Amino acid sequence: PRSYTITLLPGDGIGPEVISVAKDVLLLAGSLEGIKYDFRERLIGGAALDATGVPLPDETLSAAKESDAVLLGAVGGYKWDNNEKHLKPETALLGLRKELQVFANLRPASVFPQLVDASTLKREVAEGVDLMVVRELTGGIYFGKPRGFDTNENGEEIGFNTEIYAAHEIDRIAHAAFKIARKRSGKLCSVDKANVLEASMLWRKRVTAIAQEYPDVELSHMYVDNASMQLIRNPKQFDTIVTNNIFGDILSDEASMITGSIGMLPSASLGASGPGLFEPIHGSAPDIAGQDKANPFATVLSAAMLLKYGLEEEKAAQRIENAVLDTLNRGFRTGDIYSTGTKLVGCKQLGEEIMKSV
Amino acid sequence: PRSYTITLLPGDGIGPEVISVAKDVLLLAGSLEGIKYDFRERLIGGAALDATGVPLPDETLSAAKESDAVLLGAVGGYKWDNNEKHLKPETALLGLRKELQVFANLRPASVFPQLVDASTLKREVAEGVDLMVVRELTGGIYFGKPRGFDTNENGEEIGFNTEIYAAHEIDRIAHAAFKIARKRSGKLCSVDKANVLEASMLWRKRVTAIAQEYPDVELSHMYVDNASMQLIRNPKQFDTIVTNNIFGDILSDEASMITGSIGMLPSASLGASGPGLFEPIHGSAPDIAGQDKANPFATVLSAAMLLKYGLEEEKAAQRIENAVLDTLNRGFRTGDIYSTGTKLVGCKQLGEEIMKSV
Ligand SMILES: CC(C)[C@H](C(=O)O)[C@@H](O)C(=O)O
Ligand SMILES: CC(C)[C@H](C(=O)O)[C@@H](O)C(=O)O
Q1: What phi, psi does A344 have (nearest 5°)?
Q2: Which domains can be identified in chain B, with CATH numbers?
Q3: Does the pLDDT value for residue A195 go beyond 90?
Q4: Exposed/middle/buried for B352, CB within 10 Å: 0-12, 13-18, 19+?
Q5: Which of A173, B244, B301, B344 minimizes the number of CB atoms within 10 Å of its CB?
Q6: In this protein, which residues make up the domain named Isopropylmalate dehydrogenase-like (chains A, B) (predicted)?
Q7: How much is the pLDDT for B85?
Q8: CA–CA min distance B317, chain A (Å)
Q9: Would you call B159 and A164 a contact, using CB atoms and an 8 Å cutoff?
Q10: Ligand (nearest to CA of A74)
C-alpha cells in the first residue's frame, strides 16, 4: 500500500477534538483506498508555549518539513492573548507558512444546499455560491522589510511595514491560480489596488502577462474595494479569485461568511514542492473547547484537501467529500449549524456518522 | 445673512447632473435658514484632463483651498482608463485629499427603512443598520514612502509601498472618531491588523491611550479580517468604526453595499481646519451619464453633510435630510432604487420633488 507520513498539529481549544475526528476519517478513507499513514503528533501554538516556551518548537517544524503533509487544528486562546508578539500562538502559523514555503493558500467558500439558510444573505443570493479564493501567503506586507518602530524627525513614534512583491512571487501564485481556475469554471478574477499602489501595478502587469499561457481561462481584474462590495452584491459572479496576502486575508474571510457556516470551511496552503499545510478556517473557539460541541466538518474537509492537493489521492478525497454531504443529508448537525428538524449531535458522534458514510 | 464660498467640482459622467440638483437644494435650504452662497464651479478629473491636460489643475486646487467647503460629483470614465497613473482622473482625488489635508473620511452606511429590500442581506439583518466608518484618509500605504519599482539582487522587478503611521496621524483620527462616536451611540470599534503589522500595533496603542480622554465612549478592537466577516454576519453590532486608509477603503465599501443602495450614500472628508470635501460614494457611472437617470440623493445628502460638518449649519442640514426622507416616503425613486409600487422619475424630477420637501 502507498504510505504517507502526516504531521498532526492539534493545537489549542477545539483543535484536538476536531483533529481526532479528522484522523479517524483519514484512516478509514485511506484504508478503503489502499493508503497507509504514519501519523506524528506535535505541539503548536499555546500548547507548545506552555510545554516548551515557544509557539513553534524546532522539533515541530522539522517534523512538519519531513512529512508528506501537515494537518493543523487551531491555535490561540485567551490565556496567551496578552503575550508579546513573538510569544503569541498565532505567530506559529506565520512561521510555519514561511518555513514550509506554502505560498498558495486555497480558500474555497461553497454554500452547502443543506445549509443555505445559515447565510445572512438572501437565499437567492447565497444559493449556489461556489468560489475559491487563492491568497498569496508568504509575501507582501506580512513579511516585507523594512518593518518595525522608529522615531521620526519630529521625535514622534512611527510604526511601518512594507508591502512588496517580486516578479517571481507574483508569477508563481498566478500560475497556481490559473491552473485552479482552469479545473473549475475557467474564470479568474485578480484583485488588487493598482489605481493606487505600485506593488499592485506590478501584480496586475505580471498576472496579465501570465494569462497568455492560459488562453482557456478568462481573466478579469477588480479593485479590492469593489471586490469587497461585489462579494455581497452578487457573489455568484465569481469563480476563482487571486489576490495578495493582506487582501486575501480580508476577502477570503468575507467570502467565508457569505456561506453563513464557517464551521464547514477547509483550507489548503501549498508550495512548489514539499508538504502542504491543511487546516479549517475557523479558530480555536476556547469558549466551547473540551465540551464535545465543536463542528469537525471543516477539519474533515481539510483532510479531504490534504488527500486531493497534498497527496494526489483523488479517490480517497472524494470518499470524504461524499461522506460529508451524505452526513449532512442524513440530518446530522453540530450546534453551530443546527436548525429545527435536524439532529443535534456532538463532535464525536458527528465523527462516527461521517465514518458510516465514508 | 451668513455667507459661504462653495467650490463645486462636477467632474465626469453623472457628476454634473447630480451636482446641479444638489446645488439647487443647497440654495433653497440655505435661503430658508438665512444662508447665502458664492458658488465657484471648477474642473476636475477627466473634464480637467480634456480641457487642461491635468486631472487637478492648480486653479481648481487654489479655488478649493480658498473656499469654505468643496462639493464634488464624481471623476473617471472609460476614456481615461488607460492613462498613466499621474494622468488618471482618480489621481485628482488623492491630490485633493492630501492638499486639503482632510484626514478624516466619514462614511455613513444607513439602511433606509423604505429601501431595506434593496439589500442582499436578509431583512432582519439589514433592518436598522446605521453605522459610520471613520477612515484615515491622508496617510498610511496610500502616501507612504519609499514606494515605486526597482530591481532586486536577482535582477527581478519588484514593486513596493510603505504602510506607515506617525503617532500624531493616529491621534488626530482617533480624536475625530471618539467625538463622532460620542455624538452617536457611544460605541467605537477600532479595526487593525495588530497581530501582524507594526503599523497596526502603534495604531492600537495610540487609540487605546486616547480612549482615556473619552471615558463615556466604549472602545473595542477588531482585526480587519474578522471585521469583514462581522459586517456581513451582524452589521448591527457596530456603531462607529475607525480604521486606517486602506482598511477603510475596503470596509467602508463593504459596509455601503450592506445597505443595498450605494446611490444613497454620502461622504465627508474633514481636516483640522480649512474646507472639507463632500462627495457621494458612488462613481461617475459613465454608462448612464447624460441620460437623466442618475440618483441625486447621495450628492444631496453630501450637501447636507457639508452644511452639518463643514459649515456647522445644523438646521439647514436637517432640512435637507428631512426632505430626502419625505421624498422617499412620497414614493419617488430613480431606476437604481426603483421597486414595484413606487414612482420612477429621472434625476431632474427627483431634484424637484426634493425641493418641494425642503
Ligand atoms: C492569525 C493570523 C496571523 C492569520 C493571518 O492573518 O494570516 C489568520 O487571520 C489567517 O487568515 O490565517
Ligand atoms: C479612486 C480611489 C483612489 C479611491 C480610494 O481608494 O481612496 C476610492 O476608492 C475611494 O474610496 O474614494
Answers
A1: -80, 125
A2: 1-102+271-358 (3.40.718.10), 107-262 (3.40.718.10)
A3: yes
A4: middle
A5: B344
A6: 5-354
A7: 87
A8: 29
A9: yes
A10: 1
